[in-house]
Design goal:
- The structure is a single chain.
- The chain has 22 helices and three strands.
- The chain has helices spanning about 55-60, 70-80, 85-95, 100-110, 115-125, 130-145, 150-155, 165-175, 180-190, 195-205, 215-220, 230-240, 245-255, 260-270, 275-290, 295-310, 315-325, 330-345, 345-355, 360-375, 375-390, 400-410; strands spanning about 15, 25-30, 30-35.
- Strands 1-2-3 form a three-stranded antiparallel β-sheet, covered by helices on one side.
- A hairpin with a 6-residue loop joins strand 1 (about 15) and strand 2.
- Helix 1 (about 55-60) packs antiparallel against helix 2 (about 70-80) and helix 9 (about 180-190) packs across helix 10.
Length: about 400
């Protein structure tokens, strides 16, 4: 297994970078986009750093190197190359390279360029035999919804069974929640198929506030089992306050391991948030002192992450405060939850880290989470957002210093 080789990306941001350093689009959430200036350089190098065609070709070939440090350095070289040089080289790699992992990594890097050839390549590779390529293509189309390919997505949804591809495909469909056929397909899969696939559909529906699926998800939430916490949390994310009564009943009847998701959902719906957030924080402290409650710990960390993704600064601070001093068994789930917040809400993460006196320790906690996250596509989107923040911030500002430290410690 390649060390720290992020295998698939089924969530997070997609950033469309300018192919030649021009103004392009960056999506901070499925519904919010803002203009950005895409620099092809990392914070460690000036934007006009020279990369020769030979260096670029060599770097692309090393994207599949066994050592993570070699792969990271290769990606840095590719990012510094001018867009007009990088895009054709990456297109050639995604289509022709003999190493399937190099094709995958090249496609991840290619996804950040706002070049008209990129969507065509993504559509072509959405039917490639390589699972990783299909996953990236579907993740790309989640962040770049195109109604014209919905029939193709629906056809694939009927037959795609790869464990790490189908979730990305489900999310790509969820981005088209106004389409009646998409609604029918996703609502159907809330109650059909393997639990893992159902879980990813429920999560996608929650993230996209799919009120049309509320009834189906509420039905799952009432059933004790492995999907109950996913369903409860999705109800909170959808935002239908009429579900508070159901969630209140679950507080009385659901298993202990489900209670963190229920608490987070009620908080998301705006009811007694301080109390429910405080309950989640207490779980983190309890499980750090008394081992053996990993499911409860993971649930509390995921619940606080769900709140933090929606801009709850207290929830985000609680994760960092608990994670920095925690023992390894507690630190790992918290770090992973923190990384999930970072790829979904990088601006929120950056702003929170800017004000911390223990910023270095916080960034190291985030780095630990990224080591476990294994979602290259989402991580690349996070990196481009942070890199943009670095270049647009004033020299000597907290934003620039924080962005630089994140880029350096995460080896972007």
């Amino acid at each position: 297994m390649i060390p720290r080789a992020g295998a698939f990306a089924v969530a997070g941001l997609i950033v469309a970078g300018g192919a030649s350093g021009v103004t392009s689009r960056i999506c901070l959430s499925p519904l919010l986009c803002a203009d950005t200036l895409q620099s092809p350089a990392s914070a460690a190098k000036p934007a006009n750093a020279s990369v020769s065609p030979a260096e670029l070709t060599a770097a692309i070939g090393k994207l599949g190197a066994f050592e993570y440090s070699d792969r990271a350095k290769a990606a840095q070289v590719v990012r510094r190359a001018p867009g007009p040089m990088a895009v054709p080289a990456l297109l050639q790699a995604t289509g022709e390279h003999a190493d399937g992992y190099v094709r995958y990594r090249a496609l991840v890097l290619l996804s950040t360029y706002a070049d008209p050839r990129v969507p065509d390549e993504m559509e072509r590779l959405s039917s490639d035999p390589n699972d990783r390529l299909r996953a990236v293509a579907y993740a790309y189309f989640e962040r770049h919804p195109n109604p014209a390919i919905v029939p193709q997505l629906l056809e694939a949804f009927d037959k795609e069974l790869a464990e790490f591809v189908r979730p990305a495909l489900a999310r790509a469909l969820a981005a088209h929640g106004t389409d009646p056929k998409v609604r029918a397909a996703l609502t159907r899969d809330v109650t059909r198929g393997q639990d893992f696939f159902r879980s990813t559909v429920i999560e996608a529906l929650g993230d996209y506030k799919a009120s049309y699926a509320t009834k189906a998800i509420a039905g799952v939430a009432t059933l004790e089992g492995p999907l109950q916490d996913d369903a409860a949390l999705a109800l909170g994310r959808i935002g239908d306050k009429s579900q508070i009564a159901l969630l209140a009943r679950l507080q009385q009847s659901a298993p202990r391991e489900t209670q963190p998701a229920v608490a987070a959902a009620i908080c998301l719906l705006g009811s007694n948030c301080d109390v429910h957030r405080g309950y989640l924080v207490k779980i983190l402290a309890f499980t750090d002192k008394i081992p053996g409650y990993q499911e409860l710990l993971r649930g509390a960390a995921a619940g606080l992450a769900a709140l933090a993704e929606r801009g709850d600064g207290e929830a985000l601070s609680a994760l960092v405060d608990a994670g920095i001093p925690a023992q390894d068994t507690t630190r790992a789930p918290i770090a992973l939850a923190l990384a999930s917040v970072a790829v979904k809400a990088p601006a929120v993460m950056l702003a929170a880290f800017e004000t911390r006196t223990d910023r270095t320790a916080a960034v190291e906690l985030l780095r630990d989470g990224f080591d476990m996250l294994e979602e290259d596509f989402a991580e690349e989107g996070f990196y481009v957002t942070i890199r943009r923040a670095y270049w647009t911030a004033n020299e000597g500002s907290a934003t620039r210093a924080t962005a630089k430290e994140i880029i350096q410690k995460l080896e972007f």
